[in-house]
Amino acid sequence: xxxxxxxxxxxxxxxxxxxxxxxxxxxxxxxxxxxxxxxxxxxxxxxxxxxxxxxxxxxxxxxxxxxxxxxxxxxxxxxxxxxxxxxxxxxxxxxxxxxxxxxxxxxxxxxxxxxxxxxxxxxxxxxxxxxxxxxxxxxxxxxxxxxxxxxxxxxxxxxxxxxxxxxxxxxxxxxxxxxxxxxxxxxxxxxxxxxxxxxxxxxxxxxxxxxxxxxxxxxxxxxxxxxxxxxxxxxxxxxxxxxxxxxxxxxxxxxxxxxxxxxxxxxxxxxxxxxxxxxxxxxxxx
Length: 286
Hints:
With 286 residues, this protein is of the alpha+beta class. The chain has helices at residues 22-88, 96-105, 110-119, 245-249, 258-262, 268-285, and strands at 4-11, 14-21, 131-133, 136-139, 146-149, 152-155, 161-163, 168-176, 182-190, 193-200, 211-212, 217-220, 231-238, 241-243. The protein folds into 3 domains: 1-90; 98-111 and 269-286, no CATH class; 123-251, Glucose Permease (Domain IIA), CATH 2.70.70.
């Protein structure tokens, strides 16, 4: 009987005896031990996963704090730049009258105006389906906090062609995730003007150092970087300071002088004076 053991089950109708071999006893024992081991292992693994989730949450909070600090630092730098611009006279309030007087004294021919409009950003850069975010203060769609939006967001299907608003040289063409721009193209048009095109399709149309002319295909719209949907983020900057792109999109030969009133932060008098001399010399040489 050493290899057997008996199980007795009793109820109101009496008792029943079941005899089992020791081998079956061992099997049951090992099954019970295995189940307990699995339960214990599962509990330990769940505890490990909870710890990993907690660590990831802490890292995410740390990264967010670092990003917020960088954004705050960037805004401080932008403020200092604005102060320096005011000091060196980029937007001198006390000279507005003399600037207007000088602007009136500078007469560009229709041909010279057309040439200038080939050199300075103007006109539409994309066929779009409306503006999803304008220039100025707004609530950030991802960070959910108030910020200054430095450009205009145009809704557009993926891979919609983007065109240069003026002649220039490609200063940057690549990924810029640190600022949330994603795939980004920057064009330097000279005269202190640069244009930015963000959240583009990752396939680059132009490369760094390429010279482009007004109306040339430079990129395709996309959904890269900090983006909630396919669109083009378009900026115009003068000496690093963002300007309202819509004023330049609506700028043409028919309303050539209106830009001088809408964007008084640009020293138009000296710019036009220099441009008129250069254009006149070029025409004389021809």
